[in-house]
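Good morning C.,

I know you're traveling, so I'll keep this short. The sequence:
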Amino acid sequence: MAQLFLIRHGQASFGKANYDALSELGAQQAQVMGKCLAASIEPTQLICGSLNRQQQTMDNLLAGFESATEKKLALPIKVNPDFNEFDHENVLEVFNPDFKDRAFMTQHIMAQKNPEKAFHKLYRQAVLQWLDAGSQNEALTESFDGFYHRVNQAIDGIVQNAQRQECIVVVSSAGAISMCLQKVLGISAVKAFELNEMMANTAITRLVFNEVGDVNLSYFNNYQHLTLGDIKVTYR
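The tokens, ready to paste straight into the viewer:
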């Protein structure tokens, strides 16, 4: 059996002008996760999306991995934007056109008593509308159906081209990982989004697959490396 590890990026910079960057804690989470992986796997492929927070997570993962093994992992990092997250800013804009003004949206959210909770509520409402919209709304930069097919086409490519006993590490985002799980588990889009919301930063999801392409879930949302390392668990 081959193994495919899907890893969510570390904590990003919520509330900052540039969300697409790891926080100091996010970098620490990724390094601890890399040290944990070093004790149990030998990767044969490294893949990540093209977003900054995904690539920074991969860099910190490798720093932790190489620190634990005391040797450099001589593998190229393949960047595949198909593993990028969906455009949540566009989804929010379609939900509320006033949010096209990024400064207004940020000020609106940060002015709330609990900005993170307020953002989560808006985000959930916007995503559920996006799920219902299908491919009908022309204001969307990417439909939900398009997002689902983009991610799973990338997963299918990995599975079809993998050799026996491969160990492939992919750094992505919660939404993209949940699209893969939707297909593997045969669940609804709403259920997949609920898995999305549960996923901790740097959580590891492990899939296994055989030569004929049968893919199965081994485990989901494992963040034991954070709890054992006494590192704060975050979800944004």
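Safe travels,
E.
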